[in-house]
Design a protein that fits this description.
There is one protein chain. The longest helix is centred in the last third of the chain and has 14 residues, at 204-217. The protein contains five helices and twelve strands. It has helices at 37-48, 75-85, 127-131, 152-162, 204-217; strands at residues 12-17, 22-23, 29-30, 52-57, 67-71, 91-94, 101-103, 121-123, 141-148, 167-172, 184-191, 194-203. The strands form three sheets. Strands 5-4-1-6-9-10-11-12 form an eight-stranded mixed β-sheet, sandwiched between helices. It starts with 11 loop residues before the first strand and ends in an 11-residue tail after the last helix. It has a single domain (12-102, 117-219), classed as Rossmann fold. It binds cytidine-5'-triphosphate.
Length: 228
């Protein structure tokens, strides 16, 4: 493979996948509808372009032995897995739908029905916001994914700014035929200057290819840190 066939050779990508699961008791958790399909498609597309890939996931990974898979459940576990994987990585793609809240206390035994139940929730760690301004992410191209139903463009651009992202991929999750759990996706990608690409509805594999083109264009021409 030459550089044209393997534009990501010698680069390591971290991709996060799925929805985090925040335990309530030994058998229940707070979760969301993220299937991991978009992230898995990105992981496979990156492998085909010569990258090494660390997939930090709450769901099943693609059956490709070249992908390093790290299984996690909670936002906190995902945060520490991302931080451990970051040194030497070229790209972080935070595709995962990270829960925003977790139970303030996890019941040690299964909660029984029969009475009204109130759950006290507290915010989870915001992984991307925690990395903003942290030297651990210096030189890493960081891509966020915004799942929105309302004021999509404005919200995505606000997250790009607040989380110090290089790119944000906006997914309108109010449309059933695209996004969470579906085979296809349609996204708009923003950087700090505004909209940089709209990828119209197509398979998640093709969306992944478009996103990797954008990411590759943002990598320094010469690799600055060695892969692991
Ligand atoms: N994200 C994160 N840590 C969180 C929540 C989200 O790192 N605790 C990341 C997601 O992986 C995604 C980006 O932030 O790449 C935007 O996630 P999104 O759920 O759209 O936004 P939130 O910041 O959670 O805001 P809100 O839920 O209010 O829309």
């Amino acid at each position: 493979m030459d550089a044209q066939d393997a534009p990501l050779a010698d680069r390591r990508l971290i991709v996060t996948a799925g929805g985090t699961r925040e335990p309530i008791d030994p058998v229940r958790y707070l979760g969301n509808r993220s299937s991991g399909r978009m992230a898995n498609a990105i992981a496979v597309a990156a492998i085909l372009r010569g990258a090494s890939v660390t997939l930090i996931t709450t769901v099943a990974a693609p059956p490709d032995p070249r992908i390093e898979v790290i299984r996690v459940d909670t936002a906190e576990e995902m945060d520490s897995a991302v931080r451990s994987a970051l040194p030497g990585a070229a790209v972080l793609m935070m595709v995962a739908a990270v829960a925003d809240y977790r139970a303030a206390a996890i019941a040690p035994r299964k909660l029984k029905k029969g009475h009204a139940l109130r759950l006290d929730l507290v915010p989870t760690v915001d992984i991307l916001r925690g990395l903003a301004g942290d030297p651990i992410r210096d030189g890493v191209v960081v891509v966020g994914f915004a799942a929105e139903t309302d004021d999509a463009g404005a919200n995505a651009r606000r997250k790009l700014r607040e989380k110090h992202l290089d790119l944000i991929v906006l997914n309108d999750v109010s449309r059933a035929e695209i996004g969470m759990g579906s085979e296809d996706n349609e996204v708009s990608v923003f950087d700090s200057t505004g909209l940089v690409m709209h990828i119209s509805r197509r398979s998640k594999a093709l969306v992944a290819a478009g996103l990797l083109d954008l990411v590759t264009a943002r990598l320094p021409a010469v690799r600055v840190s060695p892969p692991r």
